[in-house]
Amino acid sequence: DPKARDIEYRRLVDKLYERGSALNAASLLEFDAVIDPKTTRDVIDKALWSDQAANLKVIN
Q: Does 12 fall in a domain?
């Protein structure tokens, strides 16, 4: 039945959206940090640089 299939599809998609929301992810991963909008750029910059620094190879 196409109508029943569409209803089930919508139900599953809605469930995935609910499980994938930022609030749900935060509760599952147990973080509650809030970035002040004034410092967002600095926080992102530090995160990107820390990742790059971790992957640096020293060449002599």
A: yes
More confident residue, 32 or 19: 19
**Structural domain harbouring 49:** 2-54
**22: closest CA among 13, 14, 31?**
31
54 sits in the region (left: phi over 0; alpha: psi -120 to 50; else beta) called: alpha
**What contacts 18, CB < 8 A, 6 or more positions away?**
24
Please state the pTM of the whole predicted model.
0.39
Tell me whether residue 60 is in a domain.
no
3-10 average pLDDT score: 94
Q: Is residue 59 in a domain?
A: no
